Amino acid sequence: MSAFRDRRPFRAVLGGVAALAFGLSLSACGGSDEGAVRMALSNGYGPSGPVDDFIAGLSCYAERNGLGKPLVTHADGDVNTQLNDMDSMIARANQVDGVFVIPVDPGALKPAYDRADKAGISVVDPLSPDNSGKFLTDASAHVAPDDLGVPQMIVDHLTGEYADAKNIVVLGPQPGQAMSDTRSANFKKAAEQAGLKVVGEIHLENITTEEAQQKMEDFLTQHPETQAVFSQNGAMARGAALAGKSQGKDLVITSLDNDEATLNAVKGGDIAAAFGADLFSVAFKASRQVEAIQRGEKAEYLTVPYQKYTKDDAGMTASDARCGEYQE
């Protein structure tokens, strides 16, 4: 999964009347079916983008078990807001069994994870371990996209479908984000082993299409030998495609993300292939993990494979329509 960054304006106001709605939402859940658990989502970022898939997965689990819709909070990138959100959930421990957390700052949320555990609330997050097997958080369980395996998937696609595209540039956020740093390192290692040459790495501040286009145009001027792109985000990949067109270069662009705009770029031929995490399944499986924990079982680290989307198969069912067809 690419970064969960979404800095669009915060759409929910947590306080006053919203706090009352918070309590009513939990009360509406009522009692759970035998073995089923009442889940909540603490999202550290904005209320759009990939978060919709997580919400849909949690909602599907609740629907299938006769429960009300899960409580959802958004911190809009503010760690203090997310800490407050989690404390509000912990205060209602008799109404919440598990919280699926998308952490804005994994280290800063450790006290909240500990408080939830002491209150009997299981915390699950979608973070993968680093290459040494260490996790950034002490969550009760981790259910994550296969971030460690997807770099090899992309390299295999490039070498299998575009054997002549040897020189590649990596697009990503600024260094210091553990998962994107690990993906980049794993991609460069797999690329080297496959005989590809990483001619450079471009780090973006704001992760926008416009910034990616500008920086990619500058890079192509300095490195005209560039033939392919691996982007850790769909918006950056779309910017790279625009840069290639403006410079008259036919770039082979691969990208993480399976949002609508990125898949449309795949359908249109601007992006050769996109690799998207099944976040709906991640959230549904997280609910099952909480079930296991509440039964006293030890939760194992689970990964959900990435899916590859090319021009011939870039269709995807909308997240809110997946419940009827989803099979565990």
TrEMBL record:
<feature type="signal peptide">
    <location>
        <begin position="1"/>
        <end position="30"/>
    </location>
</feature>
<dbReference type="InterPro" id="IPR028082">
    <property type="entry name" value="Peripla_BP_I"/>
</dbReference>
<feature type="domain" description="Periplasmic binding protein">
    <location>
        <begin position="57"/>
        <end position="298"/>
    </location>
</feature>
<dbReference type="InterPro" id="IPR025997">
    <property type="entry name" value="SBP_2_dom"/>
</dbReference>
<dbReference type="Pfam" id="PF13407">
    <property type="entry name" value="Peripla_BP_4"/>
</dbReference>
<protein>
    <submittedName>
        <fullName>Ribose ABC transporter substrate-binding protein RbsB</fullName>
    </submittedName>
</protein>
<comment type="similarity">
    <text>Belongs to the bacterial solute-binding protein 2 family.</text>
</comment>
<keyword id="KW-0732">Signal</keyword>
